[in-house]
Amino acid sequence: MPVSSDVTLNGEAEPRWPDVCVLCGIEHPDGRFEFRASRVGFDQLLTLSWSVGARPKVQVPACGVCTRALRLDRRLRGVTTWIVGLAVGGAVLWLVDTLGWLPSQPRALRRWAAAGFMLLGLVPFLVWEMLRPPKVDVTAKGKNVSYEFADRSYAEMFRELNDENVRSTSY
Length: 171
Ligand SMILES: [Zn+2]
What we know:
Elements: E1 5-10, E2 31-36, H1 42-47, E3 57-62, H2 64-98, H3 107-131, E4 136-141, E5 144-149, H4 152-161, E6 166-170
Antiparallel strand pairs: 1-5, 1-6, 2-3, 4-5
The protein binds zinc ion.
């Protein structure tokens, strides 16, 4: 994602996290924000080049209140992606169908076109998501794992702690 600060590590390495809350920055937070890494990054979805593999479990240091906020944000983002995607995709599909272009096409093409329109429906949301990245997200990419942060300073801290396992960074 262009706007988040990404640090890609060797997937076999156990990541070392800064001992500060990923959301509010308080030191020695008492909790952990747990989630499973995604397998498909938004950039990969757009280029249709995702890979299969394990989805490592992530445990990011965070304080109790922030853990709940992060969990809610993650859930809401997941749900909205699908709702917006299906709604916009469905609307485009309905429009194309109403205009009479779709029914006149061969069956195989119709199916691909429908899938394409659904995916197209996600694009506005993906752009919005890129401009407002979540505080922390993790994507398994083949043998590497990409850690994406909204804060560049946190990403730099993370990078320093995991120096020997860093494959690439993009700020
Ligand atoms: Zn916090």
